[in-house]
Structures are given as structure tokens and as C-alpha cells.
Give the backbone structure.
Amino acid sequence: MNIVLLSGGSGERLWPLSNDIRSKQFIKIFKRKDGDYESMVQRVYHQIRKVDENAMITIAAPKTQVSAIHNQLGENIDISIEPCRRDTFPAIVLAVAYLRDMLKVNAEESVIICPVDPYVDERYFETLKELGKQAETGEANLVLMGIEPTYPSEKYGYILTEARKDISKVSMFKEKPDKETAETYIGQGALWNGGVFACKIKYILDKAHELIDFTDYQDLLYRYETLPKISFDYAVVEKEKEIQVLRFTGEWKDLGTWNTLTEAMEEECIGEVVINDKCSNVHVINELDIPIMAIGLHDVVISASPQGVLISDKEQSSYIKPFVDRIDRKVMFAEKSWGSFRVIDIGAESLTIKVTLNPGHRMNYHSHKNRNEVWVAISGKGCTIVDGMEQEIQAGDVLTMEAGCRHTVIADTELQLIEVQLGKEISIHDKQKFPLEL
Amino acid sequence: MNIVLLSGGSGERLWPLSNDIRSKQFIKIFKRKDGDYESMVQRVYHQIRKVDENAMITIAAPKTQVSAIHNQLGENIDISIEPCRRDTFPAIVLAVAYLRDMLKVNAEESVIICPVDPYVDERYFETLKELGKQAETGEANLVLMGIEPTYPSEKYGYILTEARKDISKVSMFKEKPDKETAETYIGQGALWNGGVFACKIKYILDKAHELIDFTDYQDLLYRYETLPKISFDYAVVEKEKEIQVLRFTGEWKDLGTWNTLTEAMEEECIGEVVINDKCSNVHVINELDIPIMAIGLHDVVISASPQGVLISDKEQSSYIKPFVDRIDRKVMFAEKSWGSFRVIDIGAESLTIKVTLNPGHRMNYHSHKNRNEVWVAISGKGCTIVDGMEQEIQAGDVLTMEAGCRHTVIADTELQLIEVQLGKEISIHDKQKFPLEL
């Protein structure tokens, strides 16, 4: 099957574990069998691979997420990189053009469009496979996945069907009804709209050409910033008459808030945590390297990262967004394709970070206009290139680099550095990249 | 008046704001009129000075607290330094010998012995002055301060008196009675024992010579580690027949737990804190440089420092000690006579700290056996001495020092360094001091 995973999301609703770079799908919170933790994107990716090892998986993501995706899924993953945020219509069109023009997939084949973060078991992906097959039959232009409701939710969209069958024609869409109306819909066999659908690649490209003037993927990428911010629902689904829906009756969860996310945690605590037995319904996720102690609390979620510490009543944890907006949004940690970094000190004219390079990886060859840097290697081995000069580096070595100097570091083993940045105008945007011939 | 402030205390009950170096009396939590915060020891010191600007104030403290005392009260404060922890009898005798032999106070004068951390107003110290005067009359050998009880507490000691007068003879001591018995005592005019008393200097020295074989202060200091661990109550008070008590009716609070401490806070939050209006009876003290957000909590204290983060039901905050014992006790921050430091990263074979030197101050001239160090100055100006060589230092400068190399730094302005320690056995005890001739 061909599947596009839509990776969007902001850093606010799961603050402080998410930030402007790490959206919720990259938080490692799900325990694997080997005891390590994986993120939503890793979990979904591996689930799809298990159901169809030959699946053509493309992740549609803004460019800010590319490093994190490479870090979590490896270098060989196909990513349709959005140069800026538009809405789902441009994002889906770009990804499908990528599939057609870059990956050379036949336009008569179907593609499944799915968010990157459903919390589901493998049966869900088995159903996705059927969804793709159904789209290829051509019985309808679009085939949606409808989720059998488990309660009259007021926060989902409902799909009303012409018949109570596994596959049925869609008669109407209803957004977020009140509880009573939702009950009526459910009585009529309505399904939740999980935002998942399949269609032929050709169908999306045809719709795209109706609305956007472009030739191919490269041209579309070039024009991306000028595309209108419209949703796929608005641009396509609402206008389409020939839509079917495929009923899915298995488990499906939308883990968008701390409250729902902690329900999916296997253990009550992750990280260095001390919790006493007077606590009930308390979840603690601690990504700091200092301990958190919870004493005598009830119905509370505690989460901590270098961005900050949240302590919230679980019920109220869905209302944190306006408070997060009040807080300085400087990114304090990030996963990069080559490893990770975290800010450990912010001074008036300095910034100190801890950098971890994964074995065999390297940073871009780059320079900064407005800052000097001092690197102190604290563990591991590798090699640095500074203004073209190659030099070995290992724990204890110190490098100083003036503004303008081009530099990179290549890790042989895992390599950790303390990097002190010095200057009046320190900014993550102050970075020029250069090609490097090794 | 001559007053000895007993500065003891462990780092456990007010974790994480206290640690093995910073006992509760050094936590800056009380708002001054100028908007800054002061600690218990600063508050008490300034209250005494206000009541008696010529008071001879000596702080009896273990050597681990000396840096913090100098940092908070200046270099000229008199400290009777306990080389190790004994109990109150040796500590009081040492301080009184210091008063007699080092400060040359007449042994016929009285001395007031008082804990460093009562939460009181100035009337309390007016009463202390009277206590000293009463001791000098010689009507009794010891004069205690008795606090008028405000409720039948089960956690204090009670002083039973012969009469309900302002000054009366003590008839009996009763430790921590149950509530009913406490009510009976209060009905009889009993007072709480706040651990404060006055007597002539001579009286304590005479008692000391009865129990300890020593000549003078220096000799006592030398023998200090061999002295028995006994309390002043056990060694002296319980055996003394001639004791008076002076009644104090003003406000007096013992701020020993998070619950009682937060009651004395003027504001509900200190530090970078976001709290929503659904919170009630919540106090947050945040000494980290990342924000804390509290949403929908009730009756909770949150406190955070580089040691860790505590979130506790207020009622239960007095029971944290056994949980603190489970946590690694590495000191993550401290105030030193020359400034302060905090640990910002702990590696397998490295430790990175941020050092702040106050203007005009310097570290000891010292070396380390088992670690190399790299210093990166991030703000300010000063001068370093490395193996006798003097050199100016300012923001951006880097110094590397091999194990064994003697070094110090002297701050002209406030000077901040990132110090990376590198070695297999990094320990705060790995330090040799050397005299430095400037």
C-alpha cells in the first residue's frame, strides 16, 4: 500500500514535552517490549511495517520536523517536506506529487492519507489496507475510514451513512454535534470521522490541477509558500458526491491532551521519580536529569523537560494552551538528524548547550556571523573540521572558533560536547551552511 | 547584648530548596521592603541589629555553613565554627568560649542562646534583651524564654511555672504531651519552650569545665571531634534547680516544614511561575531558570531547585524526609563566601558547573589531584592566577588546567564562568588549598 502520514501539530497542548520543534508525535512515551520507549511516529511506522512490510510510507511534514524524523526513523525514510505551514490541502497535494514524481508510483494506484498519531492496534492498519484496495476498485472517488463510536462525543465529526454496512455510501458530514444530537446520529449508525481516507493518486492530482497552476512536484514545491491555506475537507471532501465509508470497529484513541495521553501510558512514572503511596491517579513524565517527588496528590499529571515543568489537574490539562502562550518559547532541546542538543545555561551574552552526536553522524559544515564558540569534548571520539583543517577530538579537548569560522564535527563513537556560544546576538537562525567534501 | 545564634539543621525537611550545604535558614523566601528576598538568618540578624545596634552577635555553625553565612551576612560576621557535628552542649560551649577568649567578653556578662530561625517580629528580640538583663541580676542561674501557647500543640515542650507572672521560677519541664494534657498545662499557665535562654558566660564555662577537660577556646576547638554528643538540655538544664522563665506573648512561629513555611510567604509564587485561577491554596517557589505551570491544583506546595522538584499536598509535606533519603544527595548548588555555583550537567566522566564570583571576591588558591578543568568566562572581568602566573580574564577567554595545577580567579566585576571538570574520579573533596601572596 501507499500511505502518507500527515505530521502536523503544534508544541502547545503537550507542553513542556513538546516545543516548537518537537510536536507531540515525537515524545517517547510508549513502552516497547525491550523496555525502551518509542514515540507515536515510531509506533505507527512500525505497526504499518508489520502489517505490510512493503508499504510505501511517506511522511508529510514541515521542514522543522525533518531532523526529528530522521533521528527517530533513520535516514532512509521518505519525507515530503513542506517549506512552510499551509493547510492540509497543499500538504496532501505536495505529498501525493512527491509520490508520483519522486517515487514514481503509478497514478492509478491508491494512496491512504492518515494522521501520524492515532493510538490504535494493528487491526487499524489492516483496515487501512482494505481502504486502499477499496479505493482502487473505483466504486467511489474517495473512501473514508469511519470509526464505530464508543460514546456520544461532542468533539468529533460524524459521518452519516446510507446503510449500516461495512462499506456504505456517505450521506452527510456533521461536525461536533451536542451530546443529544450525537446520540441520535449514533442511533442511525453514524461513524466518527478520524480524518483518514484513500483515493487514487490521479484523483488528488486532478483536483490539485483544477485549483493550482503547477506542472510537477518540483514546481509545486517552489510555489508552496504562495498556495492558499485551505483544508482538504473544504477543498475536496465537502464538494465530492461519490464518497464511501469503511467501518472500523477496533480501538482508536486520539491522544491530544495530557489527560488522554497518560491513559495510554503503561506505567505511572517515566524518568527519575519518587512517588508516595498516598498518591492516586498520578502520572509523572520527567525528562529532566533531576528527581521529581510527588507526595499525596490525586488526579494530577506532572511533566517536565528543559522547557519547563507542568503540574496540572488531569481534567484541566486540556486547557493549558493560553498559559503556554504566555511563556517564552525559546527551544530548549531538540532531536537532530545527527543526535540531539539541550540548552543548559542562558546568560546575558552567552548560551551553553550540551551536544550529543550519534556514532557515524556529523553536523552540517557551518559558520555563524555573530558569535564565537568554545567546544569542550566531555566524552567519546571523533574528528573536527575547522576552516578546512581536520583534527581528531576526544574527551578533554577544547576548540575555540571565532565568528565566521566554518566548522563541523564528525562522531566516531557517541561524542558529547559542552558548547559555549558567546556574543551579543545569539540566535538559532544565525547559521550559514557550506558543502563539505570529505 | 551578647547573643549566640545556633545554626544547625539538615537538608531534608525542606528539600529540594535545602541540601547538605544549604539548610533551611539560608533559603531566601521572605520579601523585603525593597522587593528582594531574604533568608531566615538574614531576617533574624537584621531584626537583632534593629533592636540593639551594638549587639555582639555570634553564629554557632558547622563548617559546611560558613561560606553561606559569609555570602549572606558579609565577611565580618563572627562565627564559632564547629569542625564537625556534635550536639547542642558542645556547640554552645564552643561558642561561649569563643565569646570569652576570642571576642574578650567579660565572663560576668550574660549571653543569650537562640536558634537562628524563629519566625517572629521585633518584640521578640526586645524580650531577648530583657532575658539577658534578667540573667545578669543573678536571681537564677538560667533564664528561659517561655512562649504563651496559642493552641494545645503536641509537638512542643512545655515549661510549668510556680506562678503566672512575667518572670517566674520554673517548676517542671514536660516534653510533647498529648492534646488533653497540653490543655491542662495551658490551664495551669504553662509556656512553650522555644529553646531560648540566657545565663552568665561564666555559668556555661563552669559547667563546661565540670564535664570537659580543656583549657581555652583553641584547646576546645582542637578537641571538638572527641566531645560527647549530648544536648544542652540533658547536660545542664534538666539538672539545674535555679531556673526562671520570662513570659513572651507575641507572635512566634516554627517554620520547619513546607506547610508552615508557605504560611509565612507574602506571595503565593516566587520565581518564574504561571498559575491559573482554578488553583487554591497553592504555593510555588521556583529557583530553576525554567518556568513552572500550575493548573487546577488545591492545597499543594511546589518547590524546585537544581536538586529536584517537589510537588506535595501541604498536609503531607511534613513527611517527605524518608523519600528524600532515597534520592542521590549530590550537592547541585551552593552559596560560597565568594559567590555561588550550580551544577548544570553531570556526565559519566565530567561535571559542568556555572560559577558566579561576586565583585572583589576570589576563590581559594587550590589544585585538584584527579581532574582537569576548562574554564570559559561568559561575563565580567577579573584576573586568574595559574601556577603563580597572573593573567587577565574576561568574557570569551578560555583556560585549561591540568590536574595538579594551582589556580584561582579574582573578580573585578561580577564574573561568570562555565567550568567543565574532566576526570574519572570527580569529587568536591578533591581539593588542596594553598596560601596565595598577592
Q: What stands out?
A: The mean pLDDT of chain B is 93. The first helix of chain B runs from residue 40 to 51. The first strand of chain B starts at residue 2 and ends at 6. DSSP finds ten helices and 30 strands in chain B.
